[in-house]
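A student in our group prepared the protein record below, which I am reviewing. I have pasted the whole thing underneath without changing anything:
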Amino acid sequence: MRKLSRRHKENVEKTKNTIYSDLNQAIQVLQETATAKFVESVELHANLNIDPKYADQQLRTTVTLPHGVGKQVRIAVLTNDENYEEAKNAGADIVGNDELIEDITKGIINFDLLIATPNMMPKLAKLGRVLGPKGLMPSPKSGTVSSTLTATLTDFKKGKFEYKADKTGIVHVTIGKVDFTTTQLVENLQALYDSIEKNRPSGVKGKYFKTLSICSTMGPSIKVDCNTFL
């Protein structure tokens, strides 16, 4: 069993048995307990009353947080030759066709997000086993299959990203960095909560949120009262 550091033990003591009903206070405590020697990410973990094995209880959607997540996303675009210039002008880091598919087949994946135009999807079908486990397979639902490349690339460069509930019904999402201001993190947190609420699956019965907590990469879990957002 891994031994906890004194720093981590002290941080846990500050937050255990406490459920915060003030978002500003919760974020401030998170920032105070983020004492690692690097700029930690801030994460939201929402335990939802859903069973994703049923089609009407699945959550998978996109959101653009008002202040982004503090990370530059490297985007690849799979499209026809005639769209290369548009994609590059709109900010794509990699643009390709058959040569990009060949690289992916070889396991060369130098991007964080893959956008494809609809006519390229038949070519991508054989790469589902490579891209699927990495969460990189383009899909219309996530907005990564698009014929409007300029608008789509602009949105994703601004910080739009996809999230989903895992097989146990929990959403794990990065909402920023600990060096964001408290206000920025609160606004990002509120925006993500609103997105999860707005995209409530039709099969949910009764209470939707079970528990909600935030934490930094190396910090303790900080429980937040779900009613704070209502």
About this structure: The chain has a mean pLDDT of 91. The domain at 75-157 is CATH 3.40.50.790 (Rossmann fold).
